[in-house]
Amino acid sequence: VLEDDLLTRLAAAGEDILSDTALVINLETTKKTADEIEIKVEEAKVTSKQIDEAREQYRSAATRASLLYFILNDLHKINPIYQFSLKAFSVVFTTAIHKTVKGGTLQEHVENLLDSITYMVFMYTSRGLFECDKLIFLAQMSFQILVTSGDINPSELDFLLRFPITPNLTSPVDFLTNTSWGGIKSLSQMMEFRNLDRDIEGSAKRWKKFVESEYPEKEKFPQEWKNKSALQKLCMMRALRPDRMTYAIKSFVEEKLGSKFIESRSIEFAKSFEETSPVTPVFFILSPGVDPLKDVEKLGKKLGFTIEKRNFHNVSLGQGQEVIAENAMEVASQHGHWVILQNIHLVQGWLSTLEKKMEQCEEGAHSKYRLFISAEPAPSPELHIIPQGLLESSIKITNEPPSGMMANLHKALDNFNQETLEMCTKEAEFKAVLFVLCYFHAVVNERKKFGAQGWNRSYPFNVGDLTISVNVLFNYLESCTKIPWEDLRYLFGEIMYGGHITDDWDRRLCRTFLQEWLKDELMDGDVMLAPGFPAPGNMDYVGYRAYIDDTLPTETPYLYGLHPNAEIGFLTTSSETLFRTVFEMQPRDSGAGAGTTVTREEKVKSALEEIMDKVPEPFNIAEIMAKVEERTPYIIVAFQECERMNFLMGELRRSLKELDLGLKGELTITQEMEALEECLFMDQVPPSWTARAYPSMLTLGPWFADLMLRLKELESWSSDFNLPATVWLAGFLTHNPS
Questions:
Q1: DSSP labels for 281-332?
Q2: pTM over 0.85
Q3: Model confidence at 588, in pLDDT bands (50, 70, 90)?
């Protein structure tokens, strides 16, 4: 403006510019202002630099937040019901910033900020995950944080997740299986693990003691191997004791991120409710035998929302209930009521209408309006029907029983409080039996994970069984002078819990637990609920919590009345699932496949060339048939095997050759080629191969080695058609009992 005014005055000035006082004053003002602006520009540059420097101090927090969001965004690969929006994540991120404890220095504050963001996102996410997926999420989060910060070696992480084994080896030591020894041989090829195989053979006694210990993840590794990094120890542990890997991962997370990340305590519904709003509904992911409605009703009663007051609307979806649900949502949004829509998965055709109705009701809704939704997850991704927008906008909560005795026992106690403990006139007896019931409830639920070794059949034990049993206990103690042990055992073991049981042996087991725990000795403090865990004495509610934390032994099958070997099978399966899923969730950019120094394309080409070099020429059926004089049943089986092997090998050669040409740019990459490339990179057997082969759960490397053994057996047999002294029946393609 000053510049325009000055130019205008100069243009209108006469011959003697200096006589124009206003022009001279304006010129001085403009000069002074220009000098001030120049000073302020310099100050702004300094300020901008200071802002940039301060902002750089917090870059690690921004990096951590973006990393966590993309991990959340990938969870739908595990289950399509795990959907999270950026909007919801931003709210969690902002809350984490506000709740951060300020440190003495900037560096300390940033560290606190990182911890707060990570923990808040973990808690927000994990409450909406099934128990089997929580450790997968925790492991993926930990690995990605440590890879980003440069604290772990990507090639070692790649080994841990892939676990490549050298096939067809025989273990030289009796305490390792052939598969474990194959893993040790592969690991020994890495620089950091050189001579590990020789050391195990040379110091077999020390290694045997380590491998056969009850909790090897807590023991020190023999000799200099105890000085290895936490991730390197995980790599060795995966080869030595795959069944203990879930516990080893928890120990790893505890060491790297902190113990609070592995405490399996569920969040109270009232606390989750604080995050809701008229535009943020709650979505309950249902589990068998769990009813989330009780939590909603309990909180609603406390806050003044009940069916009697007509401000709590409960609609169980089914045929003809859609209109009722829509009307309830309209009324509730206008007057500030609560609405719970149960089992929305039963009305697939109405879900798109529900999503639109939710948007309509959210506009100008009453501040007290709340919507609660429940649905069962689809049994497979293909059958998933819940709209993505609905899932992203809501707070997801699972009500599954937690995993592990400590978490289950605390969860059982969550159903009661200090008032419950004091409500009976026979307080000491009531408390003692109530605690035993909580332990019994945890045992019967956790035995499910042991499969047929836990229960012959799966039963839907639930929280209702526990709460009703406690009510029955209260009534009986109030009405009887002596504790009616036999009546209580019968009611709990045959009716409340036993009502679910259909197998005689399971019923007998249930009765036996109660006979051992519910007896006169309980009041004398002589009952052991598990080895090293006696029934507690008379305590208050907080005391029982502390007793569990301080006295309960480390997680072991002994806590459930089982031998330690009972958990080997399901723990091995759990760890294999965990590593396979985490590996599938690793970043897939071609420059850093799974975080390794070898690119994705190089990895695929290497696997392709290795297999193509080993695929033999097809059997010449005409030449083979010419050798035979009489076609006996054994000869016919050999012919069939040769034909089937040719069929399978032909598919291997064709698909690999096409992919090779595609990678060279001589053929257009098709969807089938992309699928094959993905399988080669992920070390999985392509579906087009398994369709022509035999049933197998092996990964690609061991599968191909196994195929070569079968081929060798067939070549030996078809060379002269003399029946071998022994026949590998499971090696046939036509009949494979394995």
A1: -EEEE--TT--THHHHHHHHHHHT--TTTT-EEEEE-STT-HHHHHHHHHHH
A2: no
A3: low
